[in-house]
Amino acid sequence: MVDVLGGRRLLTRDGAWMEAEEELQNKVVALYFAAGWCAPSRDFTPLLCHFYAQLVAEARPPAPFAVVFVSADGSAQEMLDFMRELPGAWLALPFHDPFRQELRTRYHITAIPRLVIVKPSGEVITDKGRKQIRERGLACFQSWVEAANIFQNFSG
After folding, report:
1. Residue 1 has what pLDDT?
2. Taking each helix axis from N to C terminus, what angle separates 129-136 and 139-148, rounded to the nearest 10 degrees?
3. What is the pTM of this model?
4. Any idea of the CA torsion for 43, 49, 50, 54, to the nearest 10 degrees?
């Protein structure tokens, strides 16, 4: 994902700016295309938050996993309001960044929510991350790590 988001600054829910290369290097990245107004997004987001917490916030060492929120909200304020419900370590493309649309096109996003799991290069591991998390829970992460060629001593 560093290759795709290289040179971009990402936003935290607290309004801090982070460098994409620094934050996403050597990680499996989940691009979360969603919106606060979308009922299916609101349904899936708590499950994704729990999945993330188990892998990153509660695990020692933390798993090499990052979530980048790509908002489909109607305004920057709506995006920020929804982001306040997300874990603090999640990142987002700024609302006014036109690259949000480029990512939707690149990853063929026609409906939300959609969770696209990508390698550091931006190559798709799966565009069915949401389904895999619902069906397999933490077990799906090991296959993502293996597909991304990231060494990690992780058992899920």
Report:
1. 57
2. 140
3. 0.91
4. 160
